[in-house]
Amino acid sequence: MRESMWRQIAEDLRLKIESGELGAGGMPLPSELELRDSYRASRNTVRDAIKWLVTRGLVVTRPGQGTFVVQKIDPFVTTLSTDINAPRESTAYASEVMASSRIPKVSDPRIEIQQASGLTAAELHLQHGTSVVSRHQDRFIDGVPWSFQTTFYPMRLVEQGAEWIIRAQDLPTGIVGYIENVLGIKEVGCRDRFLVRPPDGAETNFFKLPDDGRISVIETIRTGYDQVGEPLRVTVTTYPADRNQFVMTAGKVPAEQTRALPRG
Amino acid sequence: MRESMWRQIAEDLRLKIESGELGAGGMPLPSELELRDSYRASRNTVRDAIKWLVTRGLVVTRPGQGTFVVQKIDPFVTTLSTDINAPRESTAYASEVMASSRIPKVSDPRIEIQQASGLTAAELHLQHGTSVVSRHQDRFIDGVPWSFQTTFYPMRLVEQGAEWIIRAQDLPTGIVGYIENVLGIKEVGCRDRFLVRPPDGAETNFFKLPDDGRISVIETIRTGYDQVGEPLRVTVTTYPADRNQFVMTAGKVPAEQTRALPRG
DNA sequence: CCGTATTTGTTCGTATGTATT
DNA sequence: CAATACATACGAACAAATACG
């Protein structure tokens, strides 16, 4: 069976884009009317072909301007610590970004008092409706939103004296270290969960993702436990899948510059 | 500005689908002609709305049958070992699946001799064109393709006497344990890389993913190193993002039944 | 600032092909 | 074979966003 015409046009455009024949140097593709003439098809058929390219993330269309090829993002590689004594997430982030010659920026923490529900109630072993403190931070690399993170603490930690949890400031020791210093409650282990899912509206907006849900987000959920096995905090971090990779080591491995992996 | 009509229709359909008013129990949605009449729009406009739902993965269309809502897959949670002495991947897989009351199946290994290139050459520190052995296995859960895995070994291991690497059989100790027994080369550490990317053609076909690249695959690349820091093998595992989650623990954490996390 | 040309976005209509029942 | 339902393709008109003189 012969391929549909819009599919053939899409494939031809894809090849010409990947060879650099079209769209090189930020130039727009030929307009829909020009493509209609050159392919001897109707404008709607050309639009079907372009829509296929848009869905695959190869091009973007801008009303009044034209159709442009998207440039690939240089991904950042996050090191996942398998060692509970590794440096805290907050401090590790900036140094890791700078080690790759890029500029990190972290927003000031945004504090909210919320009621435990769903994930937080389950992970922190709290009744639904119990108060939790959430600390939220947005993280940028070279000015581009790269990930964001929300950590939930049981309100009882504040009531027991760890009052800086509800201050909108970063602490040099990190909040987890602060809790250990003030309350003697130490995080001796954590469980990480990873999942990949479509972005919600807020994520689509913040990360400037295409609104068709084509780019997934990676969500990591880290629950920290104290000496008696009680959950101390749960940290939810969200990474757009188009600009993030992860690396983790176990046992003895030779050191190596962390870098993004190309396809091969 | 008012929302476009196709967008309004899509939103209305989405709400009716999520409330169960439409498509419940495997029933098809109303046909495009019926929707055209009920929304007082053209069939093309209704199709634009349906295309939006298809792109979001809410429905699938089948020629001659109708439009159906997709049911959510119950994800499987893979435990990532942070301990180099944990049981081998191959043996761990089946027991972990059975622990969640599901039926694992692993295909017989498919062996190929290939030339190192790109990823394998870089990770195994081999010249391009050097021979490598690839062992490939497909993994199923309840009969559904769930992941597949390819491990690359330098050909010199076979030449040094580890000849079972090129036999299409599973070994009770796993290949890595076999190499240790025969050659005395022990894997003392490994580096895992994680990335999320659109599926290629083979993956789309094997996992029966929609051909618009909407569902990403999660790729993990595990490179194992021996006592002298030389790479021993590299294992590439591919998981469709719509049916896989991961969990990893560090330090001391209370035991818990691994389960998929819902959104909340 | 304004008006015009260009370009993509939306919506309609119609006809024909292909897959399934 | 016939009926139904989605897929493809064409043509047309107007709206909205943008760029430019």
Brief overview:
The structure is a homodimer of 264-residue chains. Chain A is of the alpha+beta class.
The beta-strand count of chain A equals: 11
How many distinct domains of chain A? 2
Which CATH-level-2 architecture of the largest domain in chain A? Answer: 3-Layer(aba) Sandwich
What is the mean predicted local confidence, pLDDT of chain A?
A: 90
Structural class of chain A: alpha+beta
- What is the top-level CATH class of the largest domain in chain A? Alpha Beta
Cα end-to-end separation of chain A: 32 Å
Q: Can you tell me the CATH topology of the largest domain in chain A?
A: Chorismate lyase
Oligomer: homodimer
Instruction: Report the biggest beta sheet of chain A as strand number plus sense, adding barrel if it closes.
Output: 7 strands, antiparallel
**Low-confidence stretches of chain A at least 5 residues in length (pLDDT < 50)?**
none
CATH superfamily of the largest domain in chain A: Chorismate lyase-like
Helix fraction of chain A, binned, reads: 25-40%
Note the overall shape of chain A.
elongated
Radius of gyration of chain A: 24 Å
Number of alpha- plus pi-helical segments of chain A? 8
Chains forming the largest contact: A-B, 54 and 56 residues
What fraction strand of chain A?
25-35%
